[in-house]
């Protein structure tokens, strides 16, 4: 069982995370559409595959093989051999697929990615009041895997506009916020995106870096790191 950080493929993001993705916990990245969530999920997967480990990737929006190929480059086909894809069509199927990951993890743990955790939850919300409870149930199963197998779990989360705060807030409520031990917020300002640390177990919140999305993934803007005093 490995206790080492798992690199994300981006030095800037690894630095923000305090070394990379931590095993045994849930790391959450949330942000508005096109802010870079999937890019980060695919980059981290490629980095893990390059390290010779397997990746379980649940994609609720349909996995883009083209984007994987762009980020993985020439090795894409070879790396994809250790990539286990799950593409649920609804929230119940997502729950079933998460439960079924256990046997694969038992055979060989690596990195578990869920992109996005809340896409199908969002449509479920309109249908049933128990959606939040069911989401928390799924998150607890994922947390169980992180702990039992000592693996990093990376979750992306969608947002809604909170009219009171006037900002985008991650879906899933306080349970998801509480269960994610590291949280990064992504914001988009034209071409430039900003990744800000919102929550961490051993670093103060507010550290950020700016980046652009490129063919190979994310590219940090020069001299664009800092500390945001507004982030609590
Ligand atoms: N090869 C590329 N070169 C440059 N930019 C790209 C490339 N591929 C995708 N992008 C840009 O990346 C952005 C999408 O990023 P990404 O898919 O990571 O966002 P996301 O946060 O997952 O969005 P969503 O919430 O819609 O899933 C878009 O602005 C797109 O134009
Ligand atoms: Mg996405």
Fold and architecture overview:
With 232 residues, the chain is α/β, with parallel strands linked by helices. The protein is 36% helix and 30% strand. The chain has a nine-stranded mixed β-sheet, sandwiched between helices. It starts with 10 loop residues before the first helix and ends in a 5-residue tail after the last strand. Adenosine-5'-triphosphate (ATP) binds next to helix 2, helix 3 and strand 10.
CATH class: Alpha Beta
Supply the CATH superfamily name: P-loop containing nucleotide triphosphate hydrolases
Mean pLDDT score:
94
| Unique ligands | adenosine-5'-triphosphate, magnesium ion
Q: What's the end-to-end separation, in Å?
A: 34 Å
Overall shape: it is globular
| CATH architectural group | 3-Layer(aba) Sandwich
Helix content: 25-40%
Total DSSP E strands: 11
| H/E element order | HEHEHHEHEHHEEEHEEEE
Structural domain tally = 1
- Binned strand content: 25-35%
Query: Mind describing the biggest β-sheet?
Result: 9 strands, mixed
Low confidence ranges: none
**Count of helical regions:** 8
Gyration radius, rounded: 17 Å
Question: From the helix content, strand content and strand pairing, which structural class follows?
Answer: alpha/beta
């Amino acid at each position: 069982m490995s206790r080492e950080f798992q690199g994300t493929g981006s030095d800037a993001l690894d630095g923000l995370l305090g070394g990379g993705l931590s095993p045994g916990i849930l790391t959450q990245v949330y942000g508005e559409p096109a802010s870079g969530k999937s890019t980060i999920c695919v980059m981290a997967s490629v980095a893990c595959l390059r390290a010779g480990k397997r990746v379980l990737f649940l994609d609720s929006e349909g996995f883009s093989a083209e984007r994987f190929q762009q980020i993985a480059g020439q090795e894409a086909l070879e790396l994809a051999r250790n990539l286990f894809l799950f593409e649920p069509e609804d929230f119940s199927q997502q729950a079933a697929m998460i439960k079924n990951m256990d046997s694969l993890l038992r055979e060989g743990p690596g990195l578990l990615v869920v992109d996005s955790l809340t896409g199908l939850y969002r449509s479920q919300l309109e249908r049933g009041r128990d959606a939040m409870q069911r989401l928390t149930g799924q998150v607890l199963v994922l947390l169980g895997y992180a702990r039992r197998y000592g693996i990093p779990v990376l979750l992306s989360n969608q947002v809604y506009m909170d009219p009171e705060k006037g900002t985008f807030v991650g879906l899933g409520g306080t349970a998801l916020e509480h269960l994610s031990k590291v949280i990064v917020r992504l914001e988009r300002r034209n071409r430039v995106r900003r990744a800000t640390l919102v929550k961490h177990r051993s670093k103060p919140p507010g550290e950020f870096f700016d980046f652009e999305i490129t063919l190979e993934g994310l590219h940090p803007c020069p001299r664009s790191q800092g500390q945001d005093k507004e982030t609590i």
